[in-house]
Amino acid sequence: MTLLSACATNKITGRSQAMIVSDETAAKQSTTAYNQLIGEAGDKRLLDEDTYQLSRVQSIAKPLIKKAVELRPEAKDWRWEVHILKAEEVNAWCMAGGKMAVYTGLLDKIQPTDDELAAVLGHEISHALLSHQAEKLSRAQMQKAGLAAGMLAGAFFGVNLSSIAPMADSVATLGLQLPNSRQAEAEADAVGIEIAAKAGFNPEAAVTLWQKMMGQEGRAAPEWLNTHPDPASRIAAMTIKAQQLMPVYEEAKRQLHDGGSTAQALEHATPAP
């Protein structure tokens, strides 16, 4: 009865989701956990050390966020934020409310192109956009009714910060984790690659990114890959999706080029007397 009364239909996917924990509550909890994490990382010199990479990540995230807001207008009021954390794991994540992080392990080991990095960020942004954190917290409450949602907060955002020791007291480093469901991952794949294409990033990069991710398995399985099951079939699905989105990408690139040309022309135009 609780499950049935707490379901809500997602406006983007049309899927019914368990929502005992609201998006607002999930966002509030994620902000608390994120601020604590960022504060501790800064104190330990594990935050935004490479200013070039930080600028690069933020510049890629900006157009993705713009397209995300077009899909979900209320997201314009989120306090979007993205940082780089010094950690060995190949990982990135986006909490409810738009709180993001990219690990140096992903940047150093995968060495993603801008298009591939957009595929990562688009996927993670989609998890927040599609209320997947709130959904996971809701399911956790249903399964473990004796535990308060506040105590579970950062643990169920799929965040693994084991290498950022010794942050054991952080809300975001509680040892519990709930991986996203296959359905949630498929949704984030589809929405993320679409957001990236609309923002002018090549959707085919989602395929090459996953191929790079799979290439890491022989050394140490990337955390970002561990929570994303069945990579071979997902690569096949994204290949098809990328082909479908190529006209969208090409149109976005044309508009960006035309807009840039117009702005440049206006900048160099001779003022009227």
Strand-helix topology:
Elements: H1 2-5, E1 7-9, E2 16-18, H2 23-43, H3 51-71, E3 81-85, E4 92-95, E5 99-103, H4 104-109, H5 114-129, H6 132-143, H7 149-152, H8 182-198, H9 205-215, H10 223-226, H11 231-268
Parallel strand pairs: 3-5
Antiparallel strand pairs: 1-2, 4-5
Helix pairs in contact: 3-5, 5-8, 5-9, 8-11, 9-11
Number of structural units classed as domains: 1
The mean pLDDT is: 81
What structural category do the secondary elements indicate? mainly alpha
Number of strands: 5
Low-confidence stretches: 146-157, 164-177
The proportion of residues forming helix, as a percent range, comes to: 55-70%
Q: Determine Rg (CA atoms, Å).
A: 19 Å
Strand order of the largest sheet: 3-5-4
SS summary, helix count: 11
Order of helices and strands: HEEHHEEEHHHHHHHH
**What summary fits the major beta sheet?**
3 strands, mixed
